[in-house]
Structure formats: C-alpha cells, structure tokens
Amino acid sequence: MLDKFMKGYITAALWSTTDEADQPLDKKYIWTDISVGCYERMATDCNKFLRENEKDIDGEDEQAGHDFWLTRNHHGAGFWDSPEAWQNGAHRRLTDAAHEYPEVHLYIADGLIHS
C-alpha cells in the first residue's frame, strides 16, 4: 500500500504526464502500471525528500508529495504557489529543496510506465 506522500506524488505524476496521444496517463494507467525500476526511483526520491523536509511538511504528506512532483518538474504549480498551505516560509524552503532534484520524465513501454 502506498503511503500518503507517495500517493500524492504518483497521483500528480500520472495526471500531469501525457502519453503519445497527448492524453493524461491517469486516463489509462494506475500506480500498479509503474515499472519496478521506476517505482523504486520514485520511492527513493520521495523517502529522501520527506526525511529531509519532515519539519516543514508537518503532516501534510499527500499534498507535499503532490507538490514535490510538480515543483521538481517545474510545472506551473507546486510548493511556491501556495504559501497559505505551507506556513512560516516553508513554501520557499520546500521549493528550493525540490529544485535540488532533477526533472523526471515518464514514458510508456511494454504497457508499463518508466522513467
């Protein structure tokens, strides 16, 4: 079972990524369609980010996972655009922390999601 941070991260990844027909991945795929290698890389990044930023996340795990995906991939939303959700300047610290991670690009091969 996915923890809340990973759930938010994967949910954002699937709806913000499109396939070759320009359709969001979440229209045809779910988290169990993620290849083992891709899932392991996601889990490694999520666990590291969560561990390093636990104080600023302060129990908002699912939203933090969602914002981590969006921010690290430079989408038009993320930690930086919701200061009301992340108190005491945490939105800036979390944005900076997420930008330390490289962008991730998902693609479909052999019916599975890869990165």
Describe this structure as you would to a colleague.
By secondary structure, the chain is mostly helical. The protein has one domain. Helix content is 48%, strand content 5%. It has five helices and two strands, in the order αααααββ. The chain has a two-stranded antiparallel sheet with strand order 1-2. β1 and β2 form a beta hairpin. α1 crosses α2 and α1 runs parallel beside α4.
Largest pleated sheet: 2 strands, antiparallel
**Rg (C-alpha, Å):** 14 Å
Number of strands: 2
Give the topology string: H per helix, E per strand: HHHHHEE
The unreliable regions are none
What's the SSE blueprint?
Elements: H1 4-16, H2 36-52, H3 54-57, H4 61-72, H5 90-98, E1 107-109, E2 112-114
Antiparallel strand pairs: 1-2
Helix pairs in contact: 1-2, 1-4
